[in-house]
């Protein structure tokens, strides 16, 4: 591989990621961080989960998920529930407030992402999808 090209690509990717994340965080009226929104999305789509399962899915440590969930619980977005099958198991479950806040955050994110990609043609977007898919397949 061409070292200079890879370094340039890495720098562009790093700056782009930082700008996207910064804009998403600044413009989120919900006050959710990206990680909090991702955790809520998992609970919304997959239902109640154990902290350990969330850590595996998000590929982060148990203490990190505990910190995220504690903040979401304090905000009223998530609640702890005992499993009906095994009372020893504690699950995290999204609340109605969490669902409403997640919907707002998703709408805001979609609008911001449209702005980021509006400078690209349909062909450019198809090329990016093809390239990103290839990269994902390579790192699995």
UniProtKB/TrEMBL annotation:
PROSITE patterns noted in UniProt: HTH_MARR_1 (PS01117), HTH_MARR_2 (PS50995)
Indicate the segments forming the HTH marR-type domain, all copies: 2-137
Q: Does the keyword Transcription regulation apply?
A: yes
Q: Does the keyword DNA-binding apply?
A: yes
| Tree of life domain | Bacteria
Q: InterPro entries given for it?
A: HTH_MarR-typ, Tscrpt_reg_MarR-type_CS, WH-like_DNA-bd_sf, WH_DNA-bd_sf
Keyword terms of this UniProt record: DNA-binding, Transcription, Transcription regulation
Tell me which Pfam families the record gives.
Answer: MarR
The protein in question is named MarR family transcriptional regulator
């Amino acid at each position: 591989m061409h070292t200079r090209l890879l370094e340039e690509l890495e720098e562009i990717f790093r700056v782009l990621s930082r700008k996207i994340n910064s804009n998403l965080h600044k413009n989120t009226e919900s006050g959710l961080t990206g990680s909090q929104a991702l955790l809520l999305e998992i609970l919304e789509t997959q239902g109640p989960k154990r902290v350990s399962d969330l850590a595996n899915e998000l590929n982060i440590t148990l203490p990190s998920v505990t910190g995220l969930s504690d903040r979401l619980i304090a905000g009223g977005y998530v609640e702890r529930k005992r499993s009906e099958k095994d009372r020893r198991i504690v699950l995290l479950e999204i609340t109605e407030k969490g669902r409403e806040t997640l919907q707002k955050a998703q709408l805001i994110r979609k609008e911001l992402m449209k702005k980021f990609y509006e400078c690209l043609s349909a062909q450019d977007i198809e090329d990016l999808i093809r390239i990103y898919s290839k990269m994902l397949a390579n790192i699995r």
